[in-house]
TrEMBL record:
<dbReference type="Pfam" id="PF00440">
    <property type="entry name" value="TetR_N"/>
</dbReference>
<feature type="DNA-binding region" description="H-T-H motif">
    <location>
        <begin position="24"/>
        <end position="43"/>
    </location>
</feature>
<dbReference type="InterPro" id="IPR050624">
    <property type="entry name" value="HTH-type_Tx_Regulator"/>
</dbReference>
<dbReference type="InterPro" id="IPR009057">
    <property type="entry name" value="Homeodomain-like_sf"/>
</dbReference>
<dbReference type="InterPro" id="IPR001647">
    <property type="entry name" value="HTH_TetR"/>
</dbReference>
<keyword id="KW-0678">Repressor</keyword>
<keyword id="KW-0238">DNA-binding</keyword>
<feature type="domain" description="HTH tetR-type">
    <location>
        <begin position="1"/>
        <end position="61"/>
    </location>
</feature>
<protein>
    <submittedName>
        <fullName>TetR/AcrR family transcriptional regulator</fullName>
    </submittedName>
</protein>
Amino acid sequence: MVKKQLIMEKALELFAKQGFEATSVQQITEHCGISKGAFYLSFKSKDELIMALINQFMMQFTSDIDYVVKNSNTDELLYDFYYTSYSFFLQHSDFAKVFIKEQIQSFNEEFIEKIRYFDRLFDEIILSMIERLYGEETQEIKYDLGYCIKKFMGMYSELFFYYNFQMDIPLLVQSLVEKTNLIAKHMTIPFISHEFYQAYKKQVNEVELTKKDILEMIDQKLEEMDMSIEKESLILLKQEVSSPTLAPVLVNGLLENIRNHPHCKWITYLLRSYFKL
């Protein structure tokens, strides 16, 4: 295992038990069985480690949800969206709990910008889902509907993360699908207008990735991977970014090869956007 990933996994175990503030670098290094010097070769500080964990969590969630929205059948899309979201939260419950409980204490600018960035990506994914599901019928209300979907997810997550209720995910998802469809069908007075949404977008720093950025990220991922079908596919995708020759169906097949690799979820999401797939 790459040492950086080992530190992240072991630190997460401690954060889940003790919280961010109560966990020291010394405790992390002892739990990992490494020296402080080895820790600081991977992370400049505990705050940088926490940001790396937030990044990893949000990148995996965003890429998983984006894939579902782009690939589920329309009849199952809304169910798959909610089901994938809650399944992800439960699968990563240790981090989700500590993150949700402690994020309000972290008001540094880097943290706020990071959360805004991923929140913005999530907004776009939800809007694309609404357009797939309802088309022109919801043009006037789609921003309000998207906001309602996000708040549904947050409100019902609290029952698990704050009160430790056992969640019947299929029942919850069926309930949320019904609520969402009712709002989409019957809402007549939207509050969030197109102009309102555009003004909100301007407050979030957009990240424009260039071809050079993509290639550098691919190189970084290749260094972390052992030789495998996933690594071979990523090498071919790097070649496609540098010099496009493949048909979209072949590019999509290569992306399918890498999307479930733990080091490739985010680069898969970025490449899908880059190739417009």
